[in-house]
Amino acid sequence: MIKVLGLALYGPLAASTRYRLAQYAAGLIEMGISLEIVHLLDDDYLRRRFGGGMPSPFALLQMGVRRLIDLRLQEHYDLAILHCELFPLLPGRLERSLIRLPYIYDFDDAFYLKYRSKRFRWATSVLADKFDTIISGAAAVTAGNKELLQYAHQFSPVVSYLPTVVDTARYLPKRVRSDEIFTVGWVGSPSTSPYLNELVEPLSILGREGQVRFLVVGGKAPNIPEVEVVEMPWAEHTEIDLINTFDAGVMPLPDDAWARGKCAFKLIQYMACAVPVIASKVGANMDVVDENCGFLVTTTQEWVETFRLLRDQPKIRENMGWAGRERVVKNYSLVGNLPVLANVIRSCVQSKAQCR
């Protein structure tokens, strides 16, 4: 049995930890690979941050000590997978030195921009190239979209495309309707809900033409005149049922470097439930969505026109929804991508001496 230590930044409440690491564990066991996941920042940390607060310094210290204890157990493993980073604000070379195993670096966001942003300008001189250093020291890299894949190729010759995927045996279409109001839906987090401001004008226009509901799951919705706006808390056990109430799933994004690093995961979730999608023509959205399952838009008028089409043509909604489901089963399913991760792990373990 190959033993792998998964080093996640966040606990299981974070979607990236669940979908980039945890959901693979059961399938990997059947392939002779044991994946044990440990994290630095726990779920209470995330809840406090989403609520606008911060954990106490003592709680942060406890989490840091626990991470160091986990690192002391590396000798019991054959390989590590580092997702995001080991410690925030730790220079890349020091972080690399703490991982004594060959490691796979996995990322699904443009983390390399983190310490180049205005927020961390005080640390840019020391940390700007942190992720370049971590990528260059990895035995292999798994990247969540083509933008990240291209970036990683600058620093590593061993890079694999591993999109963020869903378990299509769990994400199943099941139309759940309480009325006939045209329902536009979005699933996300407080950190990405500001992107919803792009939809205020097009949805307001639509709302003046008839009843429209905008269902926002997991984030703060903007005020949209003429539209019934409903905010629902995110929970793993209700997420799929809520998606199945959508007539259209949306993913607005600005066209900037951070957004181009996104992996279009919302769209994959919607499409797995046979929901047609409308998304900004940015980054990985353009890889996930084709003309059979949804629309890529750039202007307010395009948002309005595609909303109208899906509102007025239920047959088109149905056909696009099922085309999206088929596309996810073929390209973005857990069962289809499990061998990709397993092969990367085996390759690193087999060439362990060269990976160090």
Terminal-residue CA separation: 20 Å
Helical segment count? 17
The biggest beta sheet, please? 6 strands, parallel
Q: What best-fitting shape do the alpha-carbon axes yield?
A: globular
Q: What is the helix/strand order?
A: EHHEHHEHEHHEHEEHEEHEHHEHEHHHH
Attribute tags:
six-stranded parallel sheet; 12 strands; alpha/beta; single chain; 356 residues
Walk me through this protein's architecture.
The protein has about 350 residues and is of the alpha/beta class. The chain is about 40% helix and about 20% strand. It has 17 helices and 12 strands. The strands form 2 sheets. The protein has a 6-stranded parallel β-sheet, with helices on both faces. Strands 9-8-7-10-11-12 form a 6-stranded parallel β-sheet, with helices on both faces. The radius of gyration is 21 Å and the shape is globular.
What is the secondary structure topology, with strand pairs?
Layout: E1 2-10, H1 15-20, H2 25-30, E2 33-41, H3 43-50, H4 57-72, E3 79-83, H5 92-98, E4 103-107, H6 124-127, H7 130-136, E5 140-143, H8 146-152, E6 159-161, E7 182-187, H9 200-209, E8 212-217, E9 228-232, H10 236-243, E10 248-251, H11 257-260, H12 265-272, E11 277-280, H13 285-288, E12 294-297, H14 300-312, H15 314-331, H16 334-350, H17 352-355
Parallel strand pairs: 1-2, 1-3, 3-4, 4-5, 5-6, 7-8, 7-10, 8-9, 10-11, 11-12
Helix pairs in contact: 5-7, 9-14, 12-15
Short description:
Helix content is 41%, strand content 18%.
